[in-house]
Amino acid sequence: MKSSAYISHALSFMAAAVTVVSAASLTGDGYIYITKPTTVWTPPSNVYNTTRFLWYPDKSALRFGDESSAFGMFNPANIGTYSFSGGMNSKASGDHSFSFGYYAFAESMHSIALGSYSSAGGEASSAFGSDSYATGDNATALGYMASASGQRSFSLGGNAAATSSVAIGTGSSAIAPYSVAIGMGAGATGAGSVAVSADYYAAATGDYSMAFGGLSISAGNYSYAMGENAQALADYSSAIGYFAYTSAQSSVAIGGGTKSIRRNGSATSPGTPQTDDPVFMVGLGRLGPAGTVPAHNALTIFRNTDAHFGGVVRVMPGGDIPMGNESISYTAKPAGVAFP
Fold this sequence. Notes:
The protein is mainly beta and about 350 residues long. About 5% of the residues lie in helices and about 30% in strands. It has one helix spanning about 5-15; strands at about 20, 35, 50-55, 60-65, 85, 90, 100, 105, 110-115, 120, 125-130, 135, 140, 145-150, 155, 160, 165-170, 175, 180, 185-190, 195, 205, 210, 215-220, 225, 230, 240, 245, 250-255, 260, 280-285, 295-300, 305-310, 315, 320. The strands form 4 sheets. The protein has an 18-stranded mixed β-sheet, with no helix packed on it. Strands 6-8-10-12-14-16-18-20-22-24-26-28-30 form a 13-stranded parallel β-sheet, with no helix packed on it. A two-stranded antiparallel ribbon has the order 1-2. The longest helix is centred in the N-terminal third of the chain and has 14 residues, at about 5-15. The chain is rod-shaped.
């Protein structure tokens, strides 16, 4: 309950600023007119744990809500010019800012915070959703615990995080400059990288790399992985297909389970390019839970320009060219022999 002195002080301030018109005049073009008084009213200190409605004409700002302890929601120092704030301990201290919700903070110029514990700290930033944070200038965070910390960053979805980048999807993360992560758990940690997952956990860790598909990984710089569990680990390499894999620099693997591996290489150490590294492979790798489908490369091209063919090379209409150990060329189909 306010003291009589407080109420009297507030009423005298309002009387100096408010022009009251008759109810009849409000039926047409009537109005309630509030002007800026010649004397600026400062709310009494040590008045907390209460509900208030405050029009602050000196800054053309509006406040309403509850304030607990010495929070400072109604303190003139925490009121931005032309700002609006509503809710329990909500604060709009930036000029032209807007905050609404339980502990919603809009602390920079032109910022917007909507939702409990939302915070818009960057200039012209926007935070929408419970525990959302937009700390970068011109950044936007949408969703529960969404975070946009870099300039002009954008995050959308629960726990999405973006740093000078774009993250869309639950748990997605684009923390490198100019990176893009789309899909649940997608992660783009390389500069200018792109990770897109339709279901879960694509990772683009190399600079300017691209990973498309669940559990796909593009770890090499300028690498490309497309397909579920596809991995492009070396620089400038491309792995396309289910479980396709490359670890040789500038290599390409196309087809389910196909692998293009550096000579004496490993998954964790692509290493220095060698002349006999396979750089382009097309075929069928080992697939299935225990590798039950045997590996069979139709074509392998090496860095030294050698080419290996895994099957019969057919030249029409003359016949076949035998290649490899124990190869046989038939000019006519023998009885009981089935051509591939």
